[in-house]
Specification:
about 140 residues; alpha+beta; five-stranded mixed sheet; about 30% helix
């Protein structure tokens, strides 16, 4: 009886070890595939969130690639959905036109800030390293 129980426990232990190894392999694969997609994204301009993500009341990604146009606002219809009461439903957008990236305020009530200055419903050209303020969120525009 003891030998049968010992044999069963050995097989259970071996199965647990194999499952652990498979999970490690899966995590390595996911890490490699995500780093490959992030290196592909380095050829595209993107908005990088400067805030510490763990201190926000809502979830956000670390960066958002800009492919054509990207909108920011409190409405879930935007590409970047910000759950901040200070952010308007359709706050601002960044878009690519004629070889340049532009920042446009969409009539937000609390303003969109470029390098600390309110852009006051204007459309301004973006440069690499510009800081964009929307409510509590700070983005850095990165153009590679």
């Amino acid at each position: 009886m003891f030998q049968i129980l010992s044999l069963i426990l050995r097989y259970i232990f071996i199965i647990i070890i194999y499952l652990f190894i498979l999970n490690i392999i899966r995590l390595i694969y996911l890490d490699i595939s995500s780093s490959a997609s992030s290196t592909a994204a380095k050829n595209v301009a993107y908005l990088k969130v400067i805030n510490r993500l763990d201190q926000l009341d809502f979830k956000m990604q670390e960066y958002y690639p800009i492919v054509g146009e990207i909108s920011v606002g409190r409405s879930s219809r935007n590409d970047i959905y910000v759950k901040d009461r200070v952010v308007s439903k359709n706050h601002m957008k960044v878009y690519f036109k004629d070889g340049y990236y532009y920042l446009e305020d969409m009539g937000s009530s609390n303003g969109t800030y470029l390098n600390g200055n309110d852009i006051e419903n204007n459309v301004l050209e973006l440069s690499d390293g510009d800081l964009i303020g929307v409510g509590k969120i700070q983005f850095m525009f990165v153009n590679r």
